[in-house]
Structures are given as structure tokens and as C-alpha cells.
Write a structure and sequence with these properties.
single chain, alpha/beta, Rossmann fold, 2 domains, 3-stranded parallel β-sheet, 6 helices, 7 strands, 37% helix, 15% strand, SDR_fam, 3-oxoacyl-[acyl-carrier-protein] reductase, 3-oxoacyl-[acyl-carrier-protein] reductase (NADPH) activity, EC 1.1.1.100
Length: 234
């Protein structure tokens, strides 16, 4: 199939970021705002206070920002996120399906309901986010940045970032205290990683996303980019 949109026609204006009230998502939102994009934030309703504060922080950078609360596992909530973004900010040019959770224990300890929640958020949530963002980008016919290889004819690139041990609340565990107290120690131990192996702040992930969003990154597609400090993940 011939390309229907020239890759060089893409100019990012509006980014949607799920799970953006804190951690990696928050840092990505701030970085993309600093890059000149308007931002639509998304997280669950109990994060409203953090979302409101982040909106004001982004506006202080001179960019537009909104927040739309919702559950990424809900098709209706994702539709509302995309539609509200288009209504208030004019388009959807970048979708970062950042929302995700991790299991908090060994397989023998993990409750089936918790497992189902991980699958719902980390798999179904990503699928829904990209499905409806992609539909909007194809409709706009100006290109975009998400993950879905079949969208290449529409100048929509298809990349993923794969974070290693990133210093967010997600890596904290009560057992860290038994392993020296550093956040992420229990996670490293469980994964067989040396406790003195490197970890990093969320801004290292945000910097990679920042580049992938830029027009000149049109030739980088179909990649999973490890941000792991040398840790091999497959």
C-alpha cells in the first residue's frame, strides 16, 4: 500500500498521556510541554488533585493543558478522553499509553484478581488507547506518534519505550527495608539483579519519548527501545 501521508508533513501539536498524574507519565507530560506541545492528561479519578496541579504547572510553561479522568480499561472512558482532547485542544497528534501497574509479589502470592487487573490495565488499556488515538490520527490525515505497525501508510510511527528500574512509587515495596532500604531493592532482588545495579529518574524516559515525538524521528518505527541501564529485558 502506498503511503497516504508524507512523513515530513507531521508536526506534533497535542499529546495525550495516560497515567500522567505522577512518575514517568508526569515527567513525559512536562517534557513534551517544554518541547512546545499542548497536553491532555489522564489518570484515575482519585488522582484529580495531582492532575489539577500538573495542569497549572504546564500552563505556567505557556502551553495549554487539560485533564480527563477515567479508567484506561474502559472503552467509553478512552473514547471520552480522545473526544474531549479534540474538542478542547483541537487534535490528537501523540498518544503515550503510559498507564501501567506491576504485580506486588511472587507468583505463589499473587491473587488472581490482581493478575487480571495487570492484564486489563497493561494490555487492554494500551490496546484501547492506541485504537481510538489511531482512528483520530487517521481521520486528521496529518501523521502521528503511537504504537501500531499497520499504521505506517498514515505516517504514524510505531515505537515503545521499555523502562528498567525507574525511581517512581511503582518500584517501592515494604521488603526494601530488609535489603538496605533503597527503593526498588526488593524488585531487583526478585528479578535477580544486583542491588548495586543502576537505576534512574523518570526524566531519562521522558527524554527518549521527547525525541520519538519529533518530526525528524519519522524513520524510527517498529522499535522497542530499552531504557534499562544495560539490563537485558525480553
Amino acid at each position: 500500500m502506498a503511503n497516504t501521508v508524507a512523513p515530513t508533513a507531521y508536526i506534533p501539536r497535542v499529546a495525550v498521556i495516560t497515567g500522567s498524574a505522577q512518575g514517568i507519565g508526569r515527567e513525559i507530560a512536562l517534557r513534551l510541554a517544554a518541547d512546545g506541545l499542548d497536553i491532555a492528561l489522564n489518570d484515575i479519578p482519585r488522582q484529580t488533585e495531582k492532575l489539577e496541579a500538573l495542569v497549572e504547572e504546564i500552563k505556567a510553561k505557556g502551553r495549554k493543558a487539560i485533564y480527563v479522568t477515567g479508567d484506561v480499561t474502559s472503552e467509553d472512558d478512552i473514547k471520552n478522553l480522545i473526544n474531549t482532547t479534540v474538542e478542547k485542544l483541537g487534535s490528537v497528534d501523540v498518544m503515550v499509553a503510559n498507564a501501567g501497574i506491576g504485580p506486588a509479589g511472587e507468583i505463589l502470592e499473587l491473587d488472581v484478581a490482581d493478575f487480571d487487573k495487570v492484564i486489563a490495565i497493561n494490555l487492554r488499556g494500551v490496546f484501547l488507547s492506541y485504537k481510538y488515538a489511531a482512528a483520530q490520527m487517521v481521520k486528521q490525515a496529518t501523521g502521528g506518534r503511537i504504537i501500531a505497525k499497520e499504521l505506517a501508510p498514515h505516517a504514524i510511527t510505531v515505537n515503545a519505550y521499555v523502562p528498567g528500574i525507574i525511581r517512581t512509587d511503582l518500584i517501592k515495596h515494604p521488603a526494601d527495608a530488609e535489603l538496605g532500604g533503597a527503593a526498588g531493592s526488593a524488585l531487583k532482588w526478585r528479578m535477580g539483579i544486583p542491588l548495586d545495579s543502576p537505576d534512574a529518574e523518570p526524566d531519562v524516559v521522558a527524554s527518549v519519548v521527547s525525541y520519538l515525538v519529533k518530526p525528524e524521528a519519522y524513520f524510527i518505527t517498529g522499535q522497542s527501545i530499552p531504557i534499562t541501564g544495560g539490563l537485558w529485558m525480553d
